[in-house]
Amino acid sequence: MNFKKIEPSKRTNNIKYAIRDIVVYAKRVEKEQNKKMYWLNIGDPNIFDFNTPDDVLDLTINAMKNNKNGYAPSNGIDEAVESIRKQFASKGVKNIQDIFVTTGASEAIDISLTALLNPGDNFLVPAPTYPLYNAIINKLEANVNSYYLDEDNNWEPDIADIEKKINSKTKGILIINPNNPTGTNYSKDSLKKVIEVAKKHNLIIFCDEIYDKILLDEDMEHYSLASLDDEVPVVTFNGLSKSHLVPGFRIGWGILSGKKELLEDYNEAVQKLSRARLSANHPEQYCIKNALLGSNKHIELMKDKLKRRRDIVYDRISKIDGLSIVKPQAAFYAFINMDLGIDDNTFAEKLIEKTGVVVVPGTGFGQRENSNHFRIVFLAQEEILIKALDLIEEFIKNKSWL
Ligand code: PLP
Q1: pLDDT exceeds cutoff 90 at 61
Q2: Would you call 241 helix, strand, or coil by DSSP?
Q3: In a mutational test of the pocket of ligand 1, which residue from 109, 113, 132 has the highest number of ligand atoms less than 8 Å from its CB?
Q4: What is the pLDDT of residue 21?
Q5: Hey, which end of the chain has fewer CB within 10 Å, N or C?
Q6: How confident is the model at residue 339 (pLDDT cuts 50, 70, 90)?
Q7: pLDDT tier at 238 (50, 70, 90 boundaries)?
């Protein structure tokens, strides 16, 4: 047989995921140099000192033992859907139209974009952004239409830039709040302005709120964008991965809200895709109700740890010449500006080679031209973070990339 090489589709050409792509390089260096590595690149709490709460585990294990191991209803089991509805309504959201439980928020994002975009359409995505959105938009042969987050204004969305970027092919706006990679918890004012723009230009808003329970300052409140207007069509994404320390369970959801008549056809398209892939993971759905409506004692403990780790990163990075940092208010990420005379990709690679510290270059998230950044994840234990920060400081002081 004379088999030819199997050709991948062209639509995969532009698909990148910097958060994991850098790991390939780091793993090579680890092996070649037999080096101790400091993994500050990935937002998985369970590889550090964060464990899944017992009640989340017990409810899931019981469901498995009770043979809840068949397919679930396509939109999720009733008790999960109802608890998501109740919890979202308690944030002030009135016009909830539909809820669909998915294999991680990632699948809700994929379904929602697939139901919306035709090839050639564009979707407004923040720069910097969580890169999954770009990967899916590229897969759909649509275009990422980047708008800037404003580093000089606490990384809030640059509303003027959003307005400037809208054209006849623009279908929607993505808001990630609290934000990955910047850690910003958006002001009510910014969210209201985004809603105004969306209404003026007939756009749907996708609002990713997967970090809404991880606010690091006492006086802080999270506003669900959908609670600020009863009409504007919104799909809100959330899930258990981060707040309940189960990224491997793959449990998330999408919530459609806004004026019913505006969403009817779109909702049907979402439902078709949801039915076609049968269902999300089934037994894991039995922990959703307690996770959303229960006492959630672990969250305060998690936030205490994260707050200390955030402060360590903020204090140290603020003092290093050539770096600057906007203090993250939520989640576990800092997006650090570097003015060192090298680009962010070279910086990240050389840092791995010389020190074993793994960060993700800003290019992987998108950034303004002529600016350079890197993202640090501050999930690691304090002693690991301090050592990694010592290494970064030395690396920069000695210009070790030269
Ligand atoms: N949205 C954002 C902003 C994220 O940072 C992540 C994971 O890091 C996800 C979605 C993916 O969530 P899930 O694990 O529920 O698929």
Answers
A1: yes
A2: coil
A3: 132
A4: 79
A5: N
A6: very high
A7: very high
Residue with tokens 């919890």: 87
Which atom of ligand 1 sits closest to the CA of residue 331? 5
Return the pLDDT at 119: 96
Read off the pLDDT of residues 150-164 as tens digits, 9 standing for 90 and up: 999 999 999 999 999
- Give pLDDT, residue 230: 96
Residue minimizing CA distance to atom 5 of ligand 1: 180
C-alpha 105 – ligand 1 centre gap (Å): 6
Taking CB atoms within 8 Å and a gap of at least 24, the contacts of 9-12 are 11/138, 11/139, 11/140, 11/141, 12/139
Ligand 1 center–CA 396 separation, angstroms: 31
pLDDT at 14: 77
Q: Which domains does the chain have, with CATH numbers?
A: 10-51+297-397 (3.90.1150.10), 54-293 (3.40.640.10)
Q: Which atom of ligand 1 is nearest to the CA of 251?
A: 15
Å from CA of 365 to ligand 1 middle: 14
Strand partners, 147: 126
Spacing, Cα 123 to ligand 1 middle (Å): 18
How far apart are alpha carbons 155 and 365 in whole angstroms? 14
Rounded CA separation 111/125 (Å): 17
Helix (H) or strand (E) holding 143: strand 143-150
Backbone dihedral angles phi then psi of residue 57, each to the nearest 5 degrees: -70, -45
Q: Identity (one letter) of the amino acid at 267?
A: N
Residue 401 Cα to ligand 1 midpoint, Å, equals: 33
DSSP code of 40?
-
Output the CA 164–ligand 1 centroid distance in Å: 28
Question: 109 CA to middle of ligand 1, Å?
Answer: 9
Which residues have any ligand 1 atom within 6 Å of their CB?
Answer: 43, 104-106, 130, 176, 180, 208, 210, 239, 241, 247, 252
Instruction: Specify the residue with its C-alpha closest to ligand 1, atom 7.
Output: 43
Q: Please determine, for residue 16, whether its predicted confidence score (pLDDT) is greater than 80.
A: no
Rounded to 5°, the CA angle 120-121-127 comes to 110
User: What's the chain's average pLDDT?
Assistant: 96
pLDDT score recorded for residue 3: 87
Q: How many alpha carbons lie under 13 Å from residue 330 in its C-beta half-sphere? A: 25
